[in-house]
Amino acid sequence: MVGVIRFYRPKNIKLVKALNQYVWDSYGRKYLDTHNGNGAGFLGHHNKYVVKSIRDQLEKIYVASIMFDTDILEEAITSLGSILPKYVSHVYFLNSGSEAVELGLKVARFLTKRSKILYFTGSFHGRTLGALSVTWNRKYRYGIDGLDLRTIHLPYNNAEYIEKIDHRDLAGVIVELIQGEGGLNVASSEFISAIEELRDRTGSILIIDEIQTGFGRTGYRWLHEKYNITPDVLLVGKSIGGGFPVSIVALNNGLDKELPAGFHGSTFGGNPIALAAIKGSIKAFIKDNVVDRARSMGTVLNRRLYDDLVEKGIVKRVKGMGLMLGIEVGRRVEEVIDCLQRSGVLALRSGETIVRFLPPYMISSEDIDHLVASVERCVSRPA
Ligand SMILES: Cc1ncc(COP(=O)(O)O)c(C=O)c1O
To answer: Top-level CATH class of 15-33+289-380?
Structure first.
């Protein structure tokens, strides 16, 4: 018998089907899915545009390296061109967020010929060795200390420290605008402006990690556009594949020219089915007005969590933005998450004290009623 290595705490339910914002277990129980495949299912399960695009591509060709021209490559690029910020001139396709982070770090080091990377307290950028070395929480590197990358870290959301440092050996800065795994802290504009100013002052590379915040999740197409900053490297993952494993590294105009052939590669990156998933996701994104819907339902969810739970002293506060929200509960987070699951709501944690909700954009008012009532019951029940 072979088993899966238990890196994760088992959920002890077997999921057998899914549609839109819901999943069902083997006993026929229905759940509101705000766990959402770690946030990748933002477009909902069985999104019709994603399914059609993948199905159509399966009939054509599903194994081809990105070295070859294919119709789906052209189509995915054209679709991306319609939603990526204007400063982006080139993209590279990979399979997971961590892989995108690795390429971002390599680009920073190669282009600057320096090696030091600045990251921030509370950050999470993935679990491969490079990504881990810019991930703050030591629990993720348990037993493998002494990572090789040269890094420094500074407090998140503190512009003063950044203004003071004079790192001429800085290759790059990597930052999340909302710390998805690290407690849903939202970056302040002063902090982000200070980072941009540091980039300009040191000639380093600014890497914005929108793997969790990007593609409408926060009620903005790309959250960095709200901050009015221009990264050199933008990292995208999770939702952009409609649940299919894809990630994208997008480069600011012209940077691609400095990267030589053979600098990076991936067997599966840009696989035709992955490209079809991206194409279908972008169609859904535009046709279903995903950004507007995420923003308006995010406002409703935020208000309900605040009015019904914070105001009544049931939870301490609401954190996050759009449909990337969490609540600070004054008791063990895992207990609340398990109770929510029994009540028909799948959720995640963020940091040590936050229960996080990453629902698909089509979450309804009735779902929100159910979620809020479930939280109230789970947080108030005796330990
Ligand atoms: C901001 C951020 N960066 C990187 C990653 C790593 O992505 P993946 O798990 O797809 O490797 C994550 C995953 O949660 C993330 O939230």
So the answer is: alpha beta
